[in-house]
Specification:
This protein is 82% helix and 0% strand. By secondary structure, the protein is mainly alpha-helical. Keywords: Membrane, Transmembrane, Transmembrane helix.
Length: 33
């Protein structure tokens, strides 16, 4: 079973989404958007 790979990919996507959301919020807060 490739369950570990699926969990790893899901975790990476969640972390990436959090980083992107924080980056977009920081950019909009600084008025660069």
């Amino acid at each position: 079973m490739e369950t570990n790979l699926i969990i790893l990919i899901a975790f990476a996507l969640i972390v990436l989404a959090m980083i992107v959301r924080l980056w977009v919020l920081d950019m909009s807060h600084n008025g660069k958007l």
